[in-house]
Input
Amino acid sequence: MAGIFNVRALGWGSVLSALCIALSSCSGGLFYGGQARVGSLPPPPLSLIWQQRLDAPPQGNALDANPLLLQMSTSAALYAYDLWSGERLGKRRFDDGICGKPVGADDLLLFGTRGKKPALVAWDRREEATRWHIAGVFCLPSVARRDTLFVVSERGALRALDIKDGAPLWERALEGAVRVGPSVEDERLFIGDGAGRVLALRVGDGSQAWRDSLDGAVRTRPLVSDGHLWVGTASGEIASLNAATGQVQWRTRIGGLPTPVLARQRGVLAVGAVDRMVYGLDEDSGTLRWTFATEGVVRASPVGHGGVFYIASSDGHLYALDARQGQLLWKFRLDGPVWEDIALVGETLVVATEKKTLYVFGRR
Amino acid sequence: MNALKLLCLLCLFGSPLYGQFTSFGKNKVQFDAFSWQKMETPHFDVFFFAQEEELASYAAHMAERQYRDLEKKFAHTVQRRVPLIVYSSHIYFEQTNIIPNLLPEGVAGFTEYLKGRVALPLSGSLPDFERVLHHELVHVFTFDRIARVLERHGIHDFRPAPLWFTEGLAEYWSSEWSTFGDMIIRDALFAHRLVPIAQMHLIYGTFQMYKEGESICHFMAERHGEDVFEQLFQNWWRAEEFEEVFLLTTGETLQAFDEAWNYRVRKRYLPDIAVSDAPSQMAKARTGVGFNIKPTVIPNEADSLSFVYFTNAQGYTQIALQRGESDPEIVVAGERLPLFESLHPLSTKIAVAPDGGRIAFAAKSRGRDHLYLWDLVEKRELADLHFAELVAISSPSFAPDGRRIVFSGARQSGMVDLFIADVESGHLEALTDDIYHDRQPTWSPDGERIAFSSDRFTGGRDGRYNLFIYEVSTGRIRHVDGGDHNDQQPAFSPDGRSIAFSSDREGIFDLYVADLDSAQAATRRLTHVLTGAFDPVWRADGEGLLFSGFQGGGFQIYEVDVGWDDSTAVVHYPIVEAVAEPWALEGRQEERLFALRPYSGKMTLDIAQSQISQDPEFGTSGGIQLALSDVLGNDQYAFVLSHIAGSQTGFFDGLNVALSRYHLGQRLNWGWGLFRLNDRFSSTFGRFVREKRTGGFVGLSYPFSRHDRVETRLSLRHAEIDRQFEGRRLSGWLANNFLSYTHDSSLWLPTGPIEGKRYSLGVGQTVDFKSSRRFNTTLFGDYRHYFRLSSRTSWAMRYMGRHSLGDVPEYFSLGGSWTLRGYPWRSLWGSKMVLVNQELRFPLVDRLIIGFPFGSINFSAFRGALFVDAGNAWNDAFDQWRGALGAGMRLALGGVFVFRLDAARRTDFTEIGNDTHWDFFFGWDF
Output
């Protein structure tokens, strides 16, 4: 089913959803449409608005398709839920397994597939069909900027594609393997590689603007804002670089492999690590402001909102910390460990556990 | 294999008539009765017995610390509690029932995957215990990480990592690269034995594989970043083969990486040859065949150099005596008798009395180490010293008076200290009593001092050893040479002024001599060995040394003269008072933080199997087998439920149910079972028997030692027997009992035994319980002897006889590859049977590689045989011997199967037939 979807017409979705549930083999539903609702996440304590079961652990974090929430599972099933009611509106299983974290760009869902013919697939949510695909192994998250999509393979083949049809715009072979996706800000594309090199490229042609090196493989997606670039390495080094020149401004060591995405809030940079800790660093100086100890490895990236960092750990808890002080404001016991990133979707906070449960928090 | 378990399995699943014949196999003897307890930490259940509570606290503390470390390395949390079973001695550890296998002394610990149990003993060194624990926990995390990643992506077939990788990673993440690692890799390189990754199966499970794997993991981290392992595990689900996962993760083929590693190894080690030599190039080899180690010189033999040492030239570890240039003479035969079950060749040495006529050595016997005094000339035992408070003994050394012996002893707590024993009175005196690993004591010629190696200094916390001197008159301990390195195996010079020892202070285990004349130890390096030099002992003239040298993957004994040139640097170390408590045992303070609970013996699933099969005659057969056991494996339940849905039988008739319980936690193993079985059995003589039987059994097995046991079983069953081949139907309550004695001291190659002997004698009887009518009485005997002719050639002989008397005798069959070759399988049968086999076993091809377009298949241990068989089976009167002679080949397949092919011609011992008969068989040699 395709076409216009209005949040007020949820009844149709309910019917379809009910049918899908009744016919367990049914595949399809609603993945696009509706009128976005504007709001923001309330301060903690949050309420659990709804929770749903997935057929397999999550693959990547929840995607914001306001008023829908999309979540992919490791079984290559894409779920669509009504963000506020939790009603399942669609489920679609893709034939090939999914590789890496899916990314949304307008009405496209971009993900890598595996199997004998691996590819990067641009799946049109509106048409429920593949709009284009390019062959190759693409397991790292891509990033879109207006009409351009930037994708990189683990072996370091960086490409700029026309987001409409996947036509190549330019291509650049990086010097080494890559373990995280790129970021884009203004006219610059930023990427780090497995040898610790951080590059800033011009989005127009992929030419190099600057390059610098850090200690260890780059393992966090570059976070760029206000002229700064923050990045973390496998050795547990968090560095701040001048986004315009690449000059390193500070380096701070944390206790191990960082979470793949850094969060920023009220002048504090938050990063989780495999040593069970969450670190709050002063974004200007790199000084350690605070640490927060969980009871398990922190692999899911934190998110910041309203002066609060939200963190999930493999100890099966969701934590809300005061961004400035690192004080625990609220915590919620989940049903299992969390490996995939937390997401802010509309005015909700979404977290999925390895026990296949999708939790949505917000204002009830 | 545990004897009782095998017995019960035979009883349950084999023919009812065959159950009473025992199988061979060595015994895992429960010499000690342990009172187990449990200590609960956040992530571990630590199981321990009362004497080792301090060790358990330490283990608990270390395990939690290492858990945190591995969480970081794997970026993973193990979401289950890990059972950790600690043993304060390897001797206790060998009694574990967690796995059925016999545990050799080289096994420092293991991780069992079904229940995720980790078991390990204390070898005396607490830092080494910590390293082994860390190693095993890497396995726990590796297994769990892979399992969770596969499960996450819906992949239900486990994809194990190659062994070289799992062991290499466990080594890499549990310890620093060591001098031993250098030694193994350098030696393999120069001996052209370095194995590439693609051929790692050639050294499967060896120490070289561990060290090559560790070296490869080091290089992997260096080349692709320390997080490459975390990435590999993250990508484990993306491909079926490790090579593909590696390529996906690193962008490099494993072959290209392997070549780069090999280049790196050559670049690292090849220059060493410019400044050092292999032992065979710089010293005179005094031994040459087998594995020879730990020499001790015999004093008072001025004319020639005589020494005793450990050798395995004939397979078993033995003590040999070398007098001058004559052939070595075996003076103590070890590992064949319960008396000398193990001589611990890697961890102890032999002491020679000042009179030169007696030696003292430690040997495992009847569940603990004994100190034996042995007459060298008459080759007989003079004294057997054992001490209730000591479990293990090593490195004895005589006092100059010849009456006292100092040695290293392991207490029941696992702590290893120095002791002096009076040979005549047996009185034991402890010289030290602390947590430090005091080892390799040696008495000075004047009797005033005892030099020893110990970790009783700050570097000892990191597993380093230095030399110390114990003053006998005062009890003072002095530290001879401080340093962050390993000094070991001290030996006083005949004049008592110097100590020779082995040390890795300059990166290789070389020989050093320290002059103790002043307040400083003036130390000089004596050798520049390419690989490693150990166990120095002085010649009687004080001008030369014997030592164990590592080369070509093994040890030989070498002789080198002590000579200094002006360029030999002298390094002075002050001799100072040893620090009383240089480091403490962590975990003591946590002892009370962790909850202690009595051992519950809770049963959990051990093995579960189900199967279904279709047979054209018997119909569909389906069944499940379940086994439950406690954490320690001491109590086990087995449950079998199956169904034979034949066309002639109803549902209940085809139902087979059996339940049995085995208790293996004590020396006397016992078991019982109940069964209701209805099946058609192919009897041992190839005819079918149908029997419906309902009943129960009790069984006992008592091992006298690792080699000998007595077994008995009593069963009572209601049987409805249809002996279709005789046209007889029998029904009634049958009582069956048997008694047997079994010995097994055989030594094996991959295809079968090569040395030692095995025999079993027994008697069994079956009677009708109601009428007391005797069905049969059966006698059986089986004697096998293997004479080793060379390292890999042997002469094997077997004499077997069986005789069944009574109204319903048992029948025995002959014919086929495993009994009488040249005759069809089970073609001869009767109630009496005799068989004689004589077989020459020899190597043919060490390695056979067959290439195919898709790759190659490697076979190892391709061996040949020449044989003569004779035997017959009969009922009334023996008519004639039937015989065969021929040749065969055996091929070991993956260490699990042996493919046998025999070509035989029959003979009646007057003529030889012209027809060649071929026999195929999968199974080991007799």
In short: The two ends of chain A are 30 Å apart (CA to CA). The longest strand of chain A covers residues 98-105.
